[in-house]
Every structure is written in C-alpha cells, then in structure tokens.
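Wed. Picked up where I left off yesterday with Schlafen AlbA-2 domain-containing protein. The coffee machine is broken again, so keeping this brief.
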Amino acid sequence: MTRCSQNRRSFYVLDSVVPFEEDATHEFKGHRDIAVEELPSWCYIPGTDRRSRKAVSRNINAFLNTGKGGTVYLGIIDNGTKDHVTVSVGDLLSRYTPKVPQECYKVEFVPVLNLAETSDMELQPQLQDHMPHLLRTPDYCWCDKDAVEAFHKGIPSPLHVVEITVFPWKRENFVKGKEGNQIKFHPVYEDEEGNCYFRRQGSIVKYSLQDVVEFTKEEVHQQFKPLLLSIKEEMMTLKDEYNLH
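Structure written out below (tokens, as returned):
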C-alpha cells in the first residue's frame, strides 16, 4: 500500500504497494503480537524453544540499540483495537532495561482507504477506552471480542496500519566536561526477555554481553580516532622541529 497525504493527513491506499522494502529502517509484521508473552502456543515448534512467529519486541529493541531509528509496520487492524496496541507498546517498553523514555518512540495509526474514499477523507475520532486491556497473554482482550462481534453484526470499522517508530539517537554524544572530554553513548537496551538485538539491513542480530562490550570499544575507538591522529601528527611536527628523531 502506498502512503499518501491529503490536507496534511496521511493515509494508505488499499491494494497499492509501498515504495520501499525491508531494510535497515523498515520492518513489516503481519501480526499484532507486541511482547513475547502474546505469542500463541501453536507457533512454538514442538521439542524446541524456537517459534515460527517472532514478537515485534525484537525489532523495536534492535532499532533502539542500533541508534539510527526505524519503523515497524504492523498488519491492518480495525479501529477498536488501536488503544490496545498503544497500551501494549507502552507496557512493553516500560519493561526494557533500562526503561525506554516516551520521547524515544511514537505509535501512529494510519488509515487505509480505497480510491473512492480518498477524495472525501475525514479524520476518524479515536475512541477512548476506559476498561483495562488484557496484556502479556495470547488470550483475546475484550476489545478483540468487541471487534469480532461488530464484524459479525455487519458493522464496518475503519482499517489502519500501525506504525511504531523509533527515533534516531541524537548525535550529541561528545561532551566537554570539567574533567576533560567525555563520550555520551546511547544506551543499549535489553528486551523483556533480557536479550539484546541490533539491526543489520533487513534483519536483526542477537548480541551477547561480550558482543556489546566489543561494540562499545569500537565506538570509543572511532570517536577518538581523529583526535589521536591529530595528536600523532602534532608530535611528528614537534620532532621534526626540534630534531628529536
């Protein structure tokens, strides 16, 4: 589906194709299982701890840790479960170590319209749900049951694509302090299972603690490399000037 804009409102056109594929900053998911606890039992491969379906959490974690940002696109959902998704994402990221600040991400619901609807598009008000949602379980929430009941009654509900966007880490990572230069790295997050992922083009890679240590050492090296080269050149100049060879 193509994401379009009209009167400053974004929407997707039904049966169209998005102009990008999965890469370092885009991930597509055809389900709504945000956290690992929401995965249904049938997706576990018998006799192993492997799953045929992966929770969205892994991709969010990878975008956070890579620091370049990215967006996870979830399959089309109806209007009734929008609040559930927002609450579920917030609950998930509150369980990361460290906890993810709200300013680091956003959850958007972009309408899916057919060509006839785009000419007379109106902004649909978001329903305010007052009942607590059922989280951290594959069982249906009350909002899912309401959506199914409405469907069987023939009550149409606006469709949306969920966009969970992780913002890039701000490049203010080199700070001059009273005790000299300091590096302010972006945090490395562990997900709800205590795992750590990084984004690599259209896939993610699980990092061990030692991998994170080596990654951080390389970041330090790259940060100070220009400074070290400058000092080295200055030392060579002084040696030539004072014949210290």
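Quick read: The longest strand covers residues 70-78.
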